[in-house]
Amino acid sequence: MEALKRTEKNENQPLHTVPEDPKKNKNVSVFNIPLPVFAVVLALTIAAVFTEALPAGMIGSLLVMMVIGEALGWIGDRTPIVKGYLGGGAIVAIFGSAYLVYSGILPETIVTQVDGFMTTGGFLDFYIAALITGSILGMNSQMLVKIGVRYFAPIFGAIIGAALLAALIGQLVGFTIQDAVLVITLPIMGGGMGAGAVPMAQVYSEFLGQPASYYISILVPALALGNVFAIVLASMLHKLGQRVPSLTGNGKLMDGFEETKTTSTFDLKKLGVGVLAALMFFTAGHLLGAVLPVHPYAIMILLVAAVKILNLLPSSIVEGASQWYQFVAQTFTLALLFGIGVAYTDLEAVLNALTLQYVLIVFGVVGGAMLGAGIIGRLVGFYPIESSITAGLCMANMGGTGDVAVLSAAKRMQLMPFAQIASRLGGAVILLMAGLLITLF
Fold first, then answer.
1. Phi, psi of 29 (to 5 degrees)
2. Rounded to an integer, what distance in angstroms lies between the CA atom of residue 409 and that of residue 234?
3. pLDDT in tens, 334-354
4. 167 and 273 in contact (C-beta within 8 Å)?
């Protein structure tokens, strides 16, 4: 309850738990638990992991993800340089857990269990559904319409900026424009693995002759490394916004656009209604996605936006969805980032891609997307930092998992709906472009 009250007072604070500076607070805590008590919880969790006594399914998976994720996040938020410029707790939770997998420290049975909970178990979808539903229903409906008609401008700005800067750097380091744009730029900007790299590999296979698996092995390192740069740049944009306040809306895309303030108090009954609303909108998106050639996330966003604009829901449901979104963001963000590191981050692929030329081009793609989205976003009335993060960096990451990591590093989790628009609808535009460009080359 206290965490939710703090969120209502200041929506611009990070939506994952960041304990106060220990110099200012002698009672140091992790996840709102006194440090000595949390240390006992961590020790018991580790003992359960290595004695193979961890419960199967949701209970064991969520325990490991929450406890170790919070521990890694706490360390990251207190490590110099990392906390200021490299994403803090978000990046340490992701790559700390990825290292535990890569090094073999985390037992294979636990890796399989967490991977299943994240993927087939649907925990990532559960989290994103709560954020999309609650954040959109909490928006000002008039400003939602105003933003919707112009949001694709910075998305196209991101695509153009990424392609131009990647081609330029590619020429300087000895890559052809074909390799720089088709093999590196488009996969990074394509909406992640399932919605981007996999179908793109199928397109390349049809036109270029090699099996799809061959192209996936080339595309995956670009996605992984691009995701790293997107997270780091998101953290740096957050710091830039603190130093140059005129560049940021502190979580708002444009003036006048913010979550609707409610005076309602935390209510368990409303919280239950919020859970149901998130689940139903997510299911409706999949129901329509079975007959429409559009990603279910994109359909869900459009449905929630339409309901909000037309004012079709009673205030109790709107408030419940908003409260549920705040609870999920406060409670599960670092757990989810730990799961992303285990299930979706191939540290070996990232390390294998670390040649200077490759790194420079990937950085050019992500940096170009950030700059293109920020510049065009500014021209159409958006704050450049928020535009760069959502329309730029959230196109250059690994889809839904990358969106969570980028927005967490940027301390702007309330922008999830716009991140998903960039990832899903923007990713569909990239797939179309890939099909057209491959015929030209």
1. -135, 155
2. 6
3. 998 899 889 887 788 777 767
4. no
